[in-house]
Amino acid sequence: MRHSRISAISWTIVGLLSAVMVADGRAADPDPSELNARARLEFQDKKFGMFIHWGVYSLLGKGEWVMDKDKLPISEYEKLPPRFNPVEFDAELLAKTAKAAGMKYLTVTTKHHDGFCMFDSKLTRFDIVDATPYGKDPIKALADACRKHKITLFFYYSLLDWHHPDYFPLGRTGKTSGRDARGDWAKYVAYYQGQIRELCTNYGEIGGIWFDGLWDRPEAPWELEATYKLIHSLQPKALVGNNHHSDPIAGEDLQIFEKDFPGENTAGFNKTAPYPTTVWEMCETINHSWGYNAADNEVKTTAELIRLLVGAAGRNANLLLNVGPKPDGTLPKQVTERLAEVGRRLETNGDSIYGTRGGQVVPQAWGVTTTALDDHAIPAIYVHILDFKKPIFLPTSLLAYQARVLGNVRATPKLMKHDGRALLTVPESERSAIDTVIVLSPAILEDDPRSRLRERR
Predict the structure, then answer these.
(1) Are strands 48-52 and 317-323 parallel, antiparallel or unpaired?
(2) What backbone torsions phi and psi does residue 137 show, to the nearest 5 degrees?
(3) Is there a common fold for 8-21+357-456 and 48-354?
């Protein structure tokens, strides 16, 4: 395993980080395969991903729930695919945009709640290849582009289906679709499992499957154990996550928090606590919408996005940031500009995010901490100061550490004992309006070249 070669000196430092190691991700399954266990660690290292909500609903410019919210029956909704021709979709450009933003993985909707498939499925004609003039598989193009640019690809798949005739009895939503009040649930399970098989066999190696929609019929016999075993058998490294807003289910590698940091519940539906035996991811939108919404131009600022990423990393979680392509397949200009700004920021401060775990100090009013764990370097502690209104107090065990501003060896932050704690002070000239990152390293190792190895890479 990756930490087995850390030096004796490094272990002294890592000894301070027991809280981090609890959520290391290696024990998410009682007996995970070696490939799956390694994939969890690699996923935690990536820290930042792009979420893409895209489908025929983009034509209406009201988001991905428009079929249900506008009470569109299937007879009307089926008029959308013949108009859907995203000729400007460029998988290569999309992968490059994600990479330039500092994103290491990408999760794309293959089927949303409307039942329309954005991939070439042999189990339905209600898909982009058979039902639209576009006639091509954008998921195949995206898989090829991600592989080329070394971006890990995940597939979002909604278990909920407002269109399929065998999704019956109906759940909490989709009651205005105009379907007959009948269906064979066993046939629907076979259908969705068949599509999962397609996604796991037709697109090369993938990072995992990101499920949604279970909350529509939480008590239904979904046969998830068989589904998860199918995924892990076809894709041994793949991670399974399910956005069901409840405790993790056996076979799930990834615990998802929607629009909330792990342990918080401002959204009202994240009522479960983070489980230390899963890896954690929070998903959030770059504006206020998941699917393309023509009326939503309130893109979050660079500062807001960096603080989201830092806040997630400090809580030992990844950030999956959502964008909604337009009907032609392109991203809005303000979205691509904002992503580029985030990427430029990460070129400077990326070492304090990538490959880290949540630090030994729990999130504070002033910010968070992250910790680098590396086989070949002295682990560093990064203090992310997001607000200087409150004093930055740290454990007294860190008084023996040297403090410096990331990327500026001449800066003079100081650690001093104050009221039985370690007080960190930073000159105003060295403060960032977005995220001031202070690197803490043991004073006795300040001149050890290994302590600066990460920054040279």
Answers:
(1) parallel
(2) -100, 100
(3) no
Residue ranges covered by each domain of the chain: 8-21+357-456, 48-354
Q: What string of pLDDT tens digits covers the 457 residues of the chain?
A: 333 322 222 323 333 333 333 344 333 454 668 999 999 999 999 999 999 999 999 999 999 999 999 999 999 999 999 999 999 999 999 999 999 999 999 999 999 999 999 999 999 999 999 999 999 999 999 999 999 999 999 999 999 999 999 999 999 999 999 999 999 999 999 999 999 999 999 999 999 999 999 999 999 999 999 999 999 999 999 999 999 999 999 999 999 999 999 999 999 998 889 998 899 999 999 999 999 999 999 999 999 999 999 999 999 999 999 999 999 999 999 999 999 999 999 999 999 999 999 998 999 999 999 998 765 456 789 999 999 999 999 999 999 999 999 988 777 899 999 999 999 999 999 999 999 999 999 865 444 444 443 443 3
Dihedrals phi, psi of 244, to nearest 5 degrees = -100, 0
Pairwise CA distance, residues 174 & 72, whole Å: 9
Prediction pTM value: 0.91
- Residues 431, 352: Cα–Cα separation, whole Å: 16
Q: What is the CATH number of domain 8-21+357-456?
A: 2.60.40
- For the domain with range 48-354, which CATH number is right: 3.90.76.10, 3.20.20.80, 3.40.50.1820, 1.10.600.10? 3.20.20.80
Beta bridge partners, 415, equal 424
